[in-house]
Please model this.
Amino acid sequence: MLAARLSFLISGGTGSGKTTLLSSLLGLVGPAERIVLAEDSAELRPDHPHVVRLETRPANQEGAGRVTLRDLVRQALRMRPDRLVVGEVRGAEVTDLLAALNTGHEGGCGTVHANAACDVPRAWRLSARPRAWIGPRCTASWRPRSPSSSTWCATGPAAAGSPRSTSSNAIATAAW
Model:
């Protein structure tokens, strides 16, 4: 998975080991690759020689200076990372992360609080309120983009109305 530069999310409940697993996997990434971590609080500690850490910051007493995870994801993309890692995807940054993974930033990853993979869209819909292409339920099927591709895209009636699913390089963008 890492050698193929597949993008992935690790889902699980609180205390299930998502961060530990992600840290271990990032330690297996080639030493020449630059990893950019964007996190709310610094939890990921990969054993890797080339890691750039970005951490959110609350506003000061005057209400200025706040840096959100969404801001960090956008700034991380400007750093030209070999791998973009979002410590915990749970808010509006989901749209930026999916857009980045959909436009050629391969090998990105993160964690998400959801008990099962099928709960991820619901968790994002409830917390992030992303764009309209995530609707009430998933009726699309998934297929490889091409026979040799490691990227999957949505097909079917729910995907037909999705502006992102018609792209030739769409990933994880079914209309839920």
Remarks:
- The radius of gyration is 16 Å.
- Strands lie at 8-12, 35-39, 51-55, 83-86, 109-113, 141-144, 152-155.
